[in-house]
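I trust your eye. Have a critical look at both lines of this record:
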Amino acid sequence: MAVLQVRDIDDRLYETLKSMAKQKRRSISQQVIKIIETYLANPAFKTPKTQTDAFLNLTGSWEGHETADELIQSIHESRKNSKRFEDSNGLFD
């Protein structure tokens, strides 16, 4: 069986682990193993097959009440006309 050693644990974290282990009548090592097992068994924890899958897991999807057409119209209406690129600005010859 493998051995895992963790160093430099914050005192508050250690005391929390110690308290949790005591409540469940486990050693601190047993409690840490249980926490890791529970976390890894969670369906939300899934190692992506590709980098693309990992990226898509981070991005999520758009959730809004507007239709695509309403959203596009809203974007167009929020744009401001700029005179920045007009001939009188002097940026272009």
Residues 10-56 form one domain.
